[in-house]
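R.M. (postdoc): so does anyone remember the format we settled on? I'll just put the structure tokens first.
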């Protein structure tokens, strides 16, 4: 995405459709790069949510749920729809690990 660099337009859930378009066009490396950036970003968000305690954690429940949903969609996109199983499995392992921590920290 040279025309729209991340520093000018931060990647968020709306960029998933661009990654999917790259997959459809056969540009798997470009799609995987976008997916990796998104996973790193959302994993970082979940780690931050994990650091919050008490009422502060309660304030981010909606964002936590949305973040988990987005990561699950990225896993499904790479594992099921476009068979990028190496990347998809890595993402699933990372998601499962942090999701387990989130579940036990309540």
């Amino acid at each position: 995405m040279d025309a729209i660099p991340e520093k000018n337009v931060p990647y968020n859930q709306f960029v998933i459709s661009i990654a999917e378009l790259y997959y459809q066009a056969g540009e798997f490396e470009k799609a995987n790069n976008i997916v990796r950036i998104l996973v790193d970003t959302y994993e970082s968000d979940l780690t931050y949510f994990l650091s919050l305690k008490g009422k502060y954690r309660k304030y981010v429940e909606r964002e936590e749920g949305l973040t988990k949903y987005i990561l699950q969609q990225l896993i499904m996109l790479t594992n099921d729809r476009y068979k990028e199983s190496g990347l998809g499995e890595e993402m699933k392992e990372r998601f499962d690990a942090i999701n387990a921590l989130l579940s036990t920290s309540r």
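R.M.: ...and that's the designed sequence above, right after the tokens. Also worth knowing: Residues 13-104 form one domain. The longest helix spans residues 28-51.
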